[in-house]
Specification:
Layout lengths: L1 E4 L10 E4 L2 H18 L2 H12 L2 H17 L4
Antiparallel strand pairs: 1-2
């Protein structure tokens, strides 16, 4: 199990997510983002809109770098 924060994953807060795989971590982060969007959190909405502006190649590279960061982390 590994732990990453919303900020580590490109977000805006210190919420922590724990997962065994990066795919699980990605899902937890996405669910958190959607929850914050529904609550009207301006910081999260702004960050989500910024990320949507990235071209697909940049998003693919970002995802790859975050997966590499996750893979290099020690287990909790």
């Amino acid at each position: 199990m590994k732990t990453m924060t919303c900020k580590q994953l490109g977000g805006t807060c210190d919420a922590e997510f724990r997962a065994n795989t990066f795919e699980e971590m990605s899902t937890l982060s996405k669910n958190h983002s959607m929850e914050m969007y529904k609550k009207g959190c301006e910081d999260h909405i702004k960050k989500m809109n910024e990320m949507r502006k990235n071209d697909p190649g940049a998003m693919k590279e970002w995802f790859k770098s975050k997966k590499e960061e996750f893979d290099s982390m020690p287990e909790d």
